[in-house]
């Protein structure tokens, strides 16, 4: 992988995370009912995840234009880790709460008064579930790419000359021409 492709991992990952924020993240189901929700629809602290992707892009392009790409590294790493931590925490928090809720429904259905209705039919608790969709996976993959790309920013020697070096070269050449010194 060449150097230009390595440094493009961070903005590519942030772009993927931004797009996937608006795609379906999860599908909630209860029996026959199904509801898809994106990160934008869930909202709350998940807007910090979106803001982290935007901040990665802004930092990357700002520092790239000023030829100080190494300064974008801490911003990219911090934003990626923060977003991944929020996603992991909220997933684990929801998963444990959902398991408690399903266990409570199962206990409720086992009570003697809930076993049968007046007409003799048995009560059935609908199947409750959660499934992660493409937007959730894409957001995670985007931030992992941004994180990996963040480690590659400014770490090696950049073979292309910086704007400052090019300007300095031409200023020196212009000064030599005015003084009559051969180049």
H/E element order: HHEEHHHHEHH
The rough form would be described as rod-shaped
Summarize the biggest pleated sheet. Answer: 3 strands, antiparallel
Oligomer: single chain
The total count of helices amounts to 8
Neighbour order of strands in the largest sheet: 2-1-3
Task: Specify Rg, calculated over alpha carbons.
Answer: 27 Å
Strand content: 5-15%
Number of strands: 3
For the record, give the distance between the C-alpha atoms at the N and C termini, rounded to a whole number: 38 Å
Overall mean pLDDT stands at 79
- Proportion of helical residues: 55-70%
Q: Outline the low-pLDDT stretches.
A: none
Category by helix and strand content: mainly alpha
Descriptive report:
The protein is mainly alpha-helical. It contains eight helices and three strands. Strands 2-1-3 form a three-stranded antiparallel sheet. Strand 1 and strand 2 form a beta hairpin. Helix 2 runs antiparallel to helix 4. The chain starts with a helix and ends with a helix.
